[in-house]
Specification:
Radius of gyration of chain A: 24 Å
Largest interface: A-B, 95 and 95 residues
Shape of chain A: globular
Oligomer: homodimer
Chain lengths: 536, 536
């Protein structure tokens, strides 16, 4: 029943020979629809969220397929990293950059980098070392140093989607931007880390290799960011220069999508990290390009990117749920069920410790740099941040497949690693995920919370009717107009001392960047052009 | 340099082994961007249009690649029918159904079916028979009856994209809807016809087989239409029932896209014509589903579908341009250049005759059924319709590849057929295409014409600011609000006697369909819901 989605039909049109793959494809699309519908229906319940729904539907389908194929297979699709890293991950990360509240993100930039990059490295170190010492005590001697480092990278990749569905962007802007920002930087860091490990000869480590490793890491980080920024600026410049006075929504949208994708492909071309590139391309595009296009284009890109990202996420969880029941793998592991459980619980424990080991110290460090008391992270907030990054998800799965899926069915060690990863992902997503909503209500009680849950728009993007109907000046970034009128965030904005870096950046932006690349208030007046109706 | 876009990278992330394919992919995306930008810049010129621009850029790139690879290859991508029939064609056809002016389409339904289905069959018969008699005189005896029928189907598939870019939907609504509608029905008919030919044993034809063939054709046509309508209605029903009072733009958009795609896949599942299904699914979705979603969703779906379709079209022409320079094929044919030219010009001549043979007689037939003089098709209009369908494009190419691309390099006949198809496509698109704008200006002179050319939005979708900002009742279908206030179309609407079928359909629609499936004015009032702000 397994198919490669890249070549679904071997023949044209109605008389296709590969009828089974059409059946699979239909089933899969129908399941995606089911996930969306059921996820919407379950939105109001206390425990569930979209990820868990998709996982559960995937598991149920897996069971049904297992029964109908008499235990031969549980999958509709063969997992391919290509599918994940080329088609599913880029839209998710790009959308993250595109929808992030830039003001909050850059205000907390240092803390986010601290958590996302330094924190991930700490977590990586603890999990790698912990795995090495514990597993060597358990006589799992087949694992070499490269495997331990890979385990560290795999299990330091967090999945904060669940938490973001529960946190409220307007009530807890600080927490939301920290969790969100950390999640993105963490994704990028762990993939860069994983790639760096894969490409280095790790059989004998000395200080010069370690230094080279750090140098390589920084090189990747900085160049990838620069490439993303440059591609974003290029798109802003092209659209601004070409479409002066004459707008064409479809061409603008097509150009934005193509250039976003091209930033990812260019990063691959130069052996850089596509994830970081596409993330910063998203930020730049939402800061400049997005303001140079028609209002229809704005609404379209906003929701098209969010929808792509949403479908990609549901796709991944649905897939992981189905793949979890691969019978061959479990039969290899089933000889030693005790060892398998031991192995997975040790990994889960290491994940818990590894995250605690950087969230609390780094929070204290971050608090030291802040003067205002209410800007500091309270212990309850630190707990939420800690909890928010405990889930392991699609990135972990994809990295594990990449490292261990070769000759998987023949090799005991590899089967063991994959099943352990699946166990950790399933357990953390379902058990930790189910506890998230109640935990956050307990730690951050809010009278508005219940009201918000019953209303709409669970994922990051917001409805666009308000910015379209009012023609106010307040639309600084994409969403800050929803932020500014709220007394809580307004007060916060006034009482906190303006970050000097941010201040000089704004001056530079207004003096040099926006006149060239466009942006709010810097799009020239064209009579009849919809872009400018809201500005004049 | 050739790659299969379904499996672009063999390894993860930055350290991919297949670096050449990344280079190709980057180049291809960059070329797409270039086509869009240059197409926009050349829009105001008298001769060019987007298709010709993409073809020209493709040809130039092909030359450059030929030179850099020293004559080995001219392509960045291997043409795959899968890519065309699964990823590129469905969005184009779905968008055609989604954006069609339904009132005009259904008012001229009989004429469109007459041209699209009966006309294509006539054209198919003439080209097949003509090819048989002429080529048998030329001693091309390798061709069998199946080949002649395939030639008929391949060269009766029109490509009216060029013409639609030039015709004005508001000035000449009748002509526009006829050319547009005929193009879509023709696409579907020729693919259905081609599939029917492929699956039948044509070595001995008698009356019972011919009858079976006609039965099969009608069966495909009717069931495919029904399936499309049912899927569309299902999507309307689901969204209407589920989202009562609680709207989520991303989920709505995702559901619409997934269900549109599923209609295509379901048709494949039941061995029906996906093209017809997805076209009627598009019509039903724009009539019911589209009215049940939020305003953001409406703008997003409208432009997202149009953009997808636009990119797919540019993609196809860019590809055909590059593929036209495949050196291997031409070297096989180059032994007999005279014969090759003869062959292609005969095919072109047959295309011209085949189209003339049904446009003028069927126009007269259609005129007989109409009472009002100004509803009848004048000779100049008939000429425009004839001209509009002379171009051969992507569908012809895809069908030709499907029939003749197996063992192509070894087989002389197949290489011959492919190069002839390329020649006809290139010649008709470039030469006929370049003459279209001047010809239409000559035949249908209009003072507004020049003004319109200088403004924006070349392809079918229109800007959405107007329907978003006015909260009128006039938004009957997606675009009729732009149509209704115009005196010309309003006058036409009042003076023509209301078609009785259309009248009863409206009564039925209002009494039974809209209360169940939603639609304009039948979405229940939900306080604060954006859908209803415009209706109350």
């Amino acid at each position: 029943m397994a198919i490669d989605p890249g070549s679904i039909f071997s023949k044209l049109g109605a008389f296709t020979s590969d009828h089974e793959s059409v059946v699979s494809m239909n089933l899969f699309v129908a399941l995606l629809c089911a996930c969306i519908v059921i996820g919407h229906l379950l939105e109001e319940t206390r425990w569930m969220n979209e990820s868990i729904t998709a996982l559960a539907i995937g598991l149920c389908t897996g069971v049904v397929i297992l029964l109908t194929t008499r235990g031969k297979s549980s999958r509709l699709l063969v997992f391919s990293e290509d599918l994940f890293f080329i088609y599913l991950l880029p839209p998710i990360i790009f959308n993250a950059g595109f929808q992030v509240k830039k003001k909050q993100f850059f205000r907390n930039f240092m803390t986010i980098i601290l958590f996302g990059a330094v924190g991930t490295l700490i977590s990586f170190g603890i999990i790698s070392l912990g795995a090495k010492y514990v597993f060597e005590g358990l006589n799992l001697r087949q694992l070499d140093i490269g495997d331990y480092l890979a385990i560290g990278a795999i299990f330091s990749a967090t999945d904060s989607v669940c938490t973001l569905q529960v946190l409220n962007q307007d009530e807890t802007p600080l927490l939301y931007s920290l969790v969100f920002g950390e999640g993105v930087v963490n994704d990028a860091t762990s993939v860069v880390l994983f790639n760096a490990i894969q490409s280095f000869d790790l059989s004998h480590i000395d200080s010069s290799i370690a230094l080279k490793f750090v140098g390589n890491f920084l090189y990747l980080f900085i160049l990838s960011t620069l490439l993303g920024v440059l591609t974003g600026l290029l798109s802003a410049y092209i659209i601004r220069k070409l479409y002066f006075g004459r707008h064409s929504t479809d061409r603008e949208v097509a150009l934005m999508i193509l250039m976003a994708y091209m930033s990812y492909m260019l990063a691959e071309l130069f052996y850089l990290s596509g994830i970081l590139t596409v993330f910063f391309c998203g930020i730049v595009m939402s800061h400049y390009t997005w303001h140079n296009v028609t209002e229809s284009s704005r609404v379209t890109t906003k929701h098209a990117f969010a929808t792509l990202s949403f479908v990609a996420e549901v796709f991944i969880f649905l897939y992981v749920g189905m793949d979890a029941l691969d019978i061959e793998r479990w039969s290899i592991v089933s000889n030693s069920p005790k060892k398998s459980v031991q192995f997975s619980s040790i990994l889960l424990g290491l994940v818990l410790i590894g995250r605690a080991a950087f969230v609390f110290p780094l929070s204290i460090l971050s608090n030291l740099t802040k003067k205002n008391t209410h800007e500091k992270l309270k212990f309850k907030q630190q707990l939420v941040i800690w909890w928010a990054g405990l889930m392991r998800g699609a990135v972990s799965m994809a990295l594990a497949y990449n490292k261990f899926a070769l000759f998987e069915t023949k090799d005991r060690k590899n089967a063991f690693m994959i099943t352990s990863t699946i166990t950790v992902v399933l357990f953390s997503t379902v058990v930790f995920g189910l506890m998230t909503k109640p935990l956050i209500r307990l730690l951050l009680p809010s009278p508005k919370h219940l009201v918000r849950m019953a209303s709409s728009e669970p994922t990051s993007p917001k409805s666009f009717i308000v910015p379209l109907l009012d023609n106010g000046q307040g639309t600084e970034s994409n969403q800050s107009n929803q932020n500014v009128p709220r007394p809580s965030s307004l007060r916060m904005l006034l009482t906190t001392p303006t970050n000097t870096v941010h201040y000089y950046w704004r001056k530079f932006d207004d003096a040099f960047m926006r006149p060239v690349f466009g942006g709010r208030g810097f799009v020239p007046f064209v009579p009849g052009s919809p872009t400018d109706r809201s500005n004049h």
